[in-house]
Amino acid sequence: MDMGNQHPSIKRLHEIQKEVKEIEQQVVVFSGLSTDRDYKKLERSLTKQLFEIDSVDTEGKGDIQQARKRAAQEIERLLKELEQNANHPRRLEIEAIFKEAQSLVEREITPFYKGGNCISDEFEEGIQDIVLRLTQVKTGGKVSLRKARYRTLTKVCAVQEIIESGVKQQLSLPLSNDAHPSVSKINSVMCDVNKARGTLIALLMGVSSNDTCRHLSCVLTGLIADLDALDVCGHTEIRNYRKEVVEEINKLQKYLDLEEEADSTQAYDLAQNQSILKIEEIRKKMKEINSLLLKTENASDLFLGSRAELQGLIARLDEVSPGKNPCIREARRRAVIEVQTLITYIDLKEALEKRKIYSEQIAAEHQSHKAVWNVLGNLSQIQQEVISFDGNRTDKNYMRLEELLTKQLLALDAVDPQGDERCKTARKQAVKLAQNILYYLDMKTDEWEY
């Protein structure tokens, strides 16, 4: 219908819907909490549009009433989605983990404020644990949760990098004040840089109420100006020292842009990431080999070729760069485990096939050794089922496979080597294999996604 011939009230509703459509894009990717300023802003904008819709005069006409009702329902849907994004259980889980990181920083940040760079093992281990737990938060593919997880991970990983950079720099800096008059000033700047690290960490983690990113940026710029004003001509060692300090300041300045980077879709939507695309391409090839292997009952030549291909895939995965993103690192690690599981499956199949050829030697084997091989035969069959399994932890088949693997572990525990070293070694390897299969089954069903 031509817009020029539309009723003024319908035209107004279309104008409002156009404005609402623009707000919708912000609602979909909103990754904050209900206490955030952006949440209040979006809520106000949507409520305002709802009032605008209510003010549209329907003149008692049914078509206008229906159009107004649909427009109001759309805004109510967006208000509900905004609230759900802010209060989603996974979003609250991310916030709870981040609060732990904040508490850790508040307890351990004092050395940085004092101009030192001594960090306790407890702090480093605590931050690493937080990164791991954030990586494992399930987003279900929801954009707002992916963004929230990425923003939080970015801040915590930045804290790790700032600390590591400070420790590394301590190994080469500073020079003695006696070397040159300028060294004393550079050393003084270096102390200020250490303090700036502490301020930056506090800002990134939201535990500083006295400083702002703008003020810190001005401080860092001033430090570079002080260093540029020094005369170090003809002193290569001192010039290199100054250069190192300038580079360290520049690194700190880059961390101030993290919020803008986290708003980039390519940053938090890893489905577009080149490293993830490479990992998925490798996994696709792995699945093709997997499908071929599971259809084959007995084909030594096929096993040999498949093993070589799979080892090639491991090499390709080693070449994938995760950058500084722990989610990409986790995706690569899991892909490696998938490929290694297939290689183990082939190795065991071949070992069992070769064993059939030497029936006389098997007859003379120690009974305990035979018992271990019987378990390995069972594990090979179970492993094939585990590789094929495509369900979740509530499936009866999952519980059956878990129970079968537990029984094999108990069977191995019951084997008495009676001092036979070969049997001891074989049993140990069989236990490790059973545990790896069980771990792989758990990994396949933990619903992790990048």
Q: SSE order in H/E notation?
A: HHHHHHHHHHHHHHHHHHH
Mean pLDDT: 84
Head-to-tail CA distance between termini: 45 Å
User: Rg from C-alpha positions?
Assistant: 31 Å
Helix content: over 70%
Major sheet attributes: none
β-sheet strand percentage: under 5%
Structural class given helices, strands, pairing?
Answer: mainly alpha
**Number of beta-strand segments:** 0
DSSP helical segment count: 19
Which descriptor suits the 3D outline? flat
Parts with pLDDT < 50 across at least 5 consecutive residues: none
Quick overview:
The protein is mainly alpha-helical. The chain has 19 helices and no strands.
Structure in words:
The protein is mostly helical and 450 residues long. It contains 19 helices and no strands. It has helices spanning 8-28, 37-54, 62-87, 89-108, 110-113, 121-135, 143-172, 181-204, 213-228, 236-255, 258-262, 265-268, 274-295, 300-319, 326-357, 359-363, 367-388, 396-414, 421-444. Helix 7 (143-172) runs antiparallel to helix 8 (181-204), helix 14 (300-319) packs antiparallel against helix 15 (326-357) and helix 15 crosses helix 19.
